[in-house]
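Input record, target 12 of the design panel.
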């Protein structure tokens, strides 16, 4: 992230972004999820680069609009541009520890590369993916064979298709 030192608007913009949440994962802010890649603030404009977590996720448009609204409120009188960029690629390592805790408290296993996923309830890796089609495009339903709880987990990031 790039902040213009000494510009209180830059801090206000970042603060506003920490209050933008992924509508599909209400406990997690987009900063906790590592979606915010860069913030550039100058006297005339604010530019925010976001990383798409999942290609084709319908929440992305909502996130972009929520960001633009929040940034405009934090930086009155400046032009606001919010865009998705594909570099660097978003990976689950970008999720902060606070973000992981929020995900697990919500009953969603933090994404990890490679199966099986750890159960968010008991930590067991004796789990199986039950359905590739969870409640949203981003998540899949898994089942823990130890504590017998179903849980949701992020799908691995889809390869960019275009
Ligand atoms: Zn379990």
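The sequence produced for target 12 reads:
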């Amino acid at each position: 992230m790039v902040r213009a030192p000494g510009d209180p608007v830059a801090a206000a913009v970042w603060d506003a972004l920490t209050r933008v949440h992924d509508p599909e994962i209400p406990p997690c802010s987009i900063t906790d999820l590592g979606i915010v890649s860069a913030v550039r603030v100058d006297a005339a404009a604010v530019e925010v680069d976001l990383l798409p977590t999942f290609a084709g996720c319908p929440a992305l448009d909502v996130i972009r609009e929520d960001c633009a609204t929040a940034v405009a409120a934090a930086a009155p009188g400046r032009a606001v541009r919010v865009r998705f960029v594909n570099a660097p690629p978003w990976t689950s390592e970008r999720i902060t520890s606070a973000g992981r805790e929020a995900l697990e408290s919500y009953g969603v296993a933090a994404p990890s590369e490679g199966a099986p996923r750890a159960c968010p309830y008991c930590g067991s890796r004796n789990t199986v993916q039950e359905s590739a089609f969870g409640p949203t495009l981003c998540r899949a339903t898994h089942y823990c064979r130890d504590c017998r709880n179903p849980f949701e987990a992020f799908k691995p990031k889809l390869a960019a298709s275009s």
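The longest helix spans residues 59-74.
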